[in-house]
Amino acid sequence: MLDVKLAGYNVDTEVLNKLKSSGWDGKNNVSPETISAAYARISRDPRPVGELRADSREEVDRARKSNEAIVFKMGHHSVAEHAVLNFDILGLSRLAVETLQEARLCSYTEKSQRYITLNGDYVVPEDFTFEDQTLFKGMIDKQVAVYKKLFPVLHAYQKKKNPDMLTSKSGENVVEGWAKEDARYALGMATECQLGFTSNSRNLEHIIRKLKYSPLAEVRVLGQKLYDCAKEIVPSLIILSDPEAFKKQFGKEVSDGILMTGKKIVDGEVKKVLAQIKIKEAKAKLDTAKMLYFTEEADIKIIAGMLHTATLKPFAESLAIAKKLGKTGREKFIKSVLAGLTEHDALYREFENVNFVMEVVLSSSAFAQLKRHRMMSMTKQVYVPALGYTIPPAIKEIKQTAVFEKIMDETNKVFGKLKKNSPAAAEYILTNAHRRRVIVNANLREVYHIARLRMDTHAQWDIQNVSAAMVEIVKKEAPLCAALACGKDTFYGVKKTFLEK
User: Fold this and answer.
1) What pTM was estimated for this model as a whole?
2) Mean pLDDT value across residues 440-459
3) CB count, 10 Å around CB of 25?
4) Quick one: which of 163, 253, 279, 482 has the fewest CB in 10 Å?
5) Would you state the pLDDT for residue 235?
6) pLDDT digits (tens, 9 = 90+) for 381-437
7) pLDDT at position 25
8) Is 267 exposed, middle or buried (0-12, 13-18, 19+ CB in 10 A)?
9) What is the CA radius of gyration of the chain?
10) Buried/exposed code over 26-47 (b: 16+ C-beta within 10 A; e: otherwise)
11) In terms of pLDDT, which residue wins out, 130 or 3?
12) What is the pLDDT of residues 218-228, one digit of tens each?
């Protein structure tokens, strides 16, 4: 008989502390490590899992030793994924957040500059000299002053443009949010934010190990603080984060390998290659999105994948059948299988069989949203003034372009000065408007997810433009299977047109 029981869940630490201080049953060792240890024994211990959990709870120290043996000696790191931790993170810069959020298999909920009025709170990097800190603070103050100047003008503009939105409190908040999100383009990436961060212990260990080798002091401090919090709760599951503890426990050194030396080695090899091979530099094109390479005959291969799943045929035969269907047959097939699709359905898993690799040029503001789509691969260059900056259309409408361009030009000059002494930390002064290049590798199923969320009318205008550019070039290579990639608000209109043509 099926029996499902809740084994555990995240609990506020204040509640746990009260339980511990009250001497709850005389047991003060409350830790998610007991669940990891219990689940690790499932494969070898015949007892019911409930008994295994009870046994682990009784002797937490023994459970920790079991974790260390199973995870680090036997190499079964997956059991560490059963222990989940939540963190409040406050006072972290927008730039440092990007490093943390490179970890894809975690959850983040961040304070939005779109909904919260900013008061000029920012991080002063320890990386700068005293003279550079003075220069930095002066430039930040100017950026904040422009933000405060632009916001009320933008707010008045949005209210005048959208009077129908002012009939409700929620509508008023939306209009105010539009003004805030455009004014924030003048703010530097040193601006403070706060977020809720949730990770299982396996991912957390990797994050902590990675952060300690960051070129930014703030990020290294973040890694240490995460470790200090976690070691009190799950010491047996993050032991690779502490080389001394690992050596004491296992008698050997932790090898951080490319986490420690990888970037330096790559940079060195790149420098050698550039010294050997000279090519004429082409004038940079700032296309929002450009296709680099992709799965050819994407529509045919998705149909072949569906044939493969639904039959016992090898893929080669399925592919041959899909090709013999012809253009008309394939169109009929795809229209039939997509006829029942709604704006909330995930696409068929076979849509993951085709990939599109694109180079995208986008602002820091747009990148902050695109990077949240973690079921794709993304590599990035640093932010540089050479790629220009994105000016919100509303700023042009209120005739404040000159004000905006002036603060951007001043920021670029300060960036150049800061970069001489602190190449990595200089990025703190660049703004939400400044751009970078990224390479995005996404399967078609993920492209649909991006389109639905980021092309929807409720999405911010900048990421709408970026995602629309990405979807447009994907549709050229998969005209049938990508036909319904659009925002949720236009889904049924797009679907109706596709099915009827």
Assistant:
1) 0.89
2) 96
3) 7
4) 279
5) 81
6) 999 999 999 999 999 999 999 999 999 999 999 999 999 999 999 999 999 999 999
7) 57
8) exposed
9) 26
10) eeeebbbbbbbbbbbbeeeeee
11) 130
12) 999 999 999 98
Q: Are 380 and 438 a contacting pair, CB within 8 Å?
A: yes
Separation CA 52–CA 182 (nearest Å): 55
Bridge partners for 355 per DSSP: 443
For residue 158, give the nearest of 145, 148, 171, 144 by alpha carbon. Answer: 171
Q: What pLDDT does 255 receive?
A: 79
Phi-psi region of 120 (alpha: psi -120 to 50; beta: other; left: phi over 0): left
Residue 351's nearest CA partner among 293, 290, 303, 294 is 303
β-strands 84-93, 107-110: how paired? unpaired
* CA dist., res. 234 & res. 222, Å (int): 18
In the Cβ-directed half-sphere of 465, how many Cα atoms lie within 13 Å?
14
Residue 397 CA to its chain's centroid (Å): 32
Q: Look at residue 470 and give its three-state secondary structure.
A: helix
Instruction: Determine the 3-state secondary structure of 239 from DSSP.
Output: helix
What is the mean predicted confidence (pLDDT) over 286-297? 92
Strand partners, 109: 196
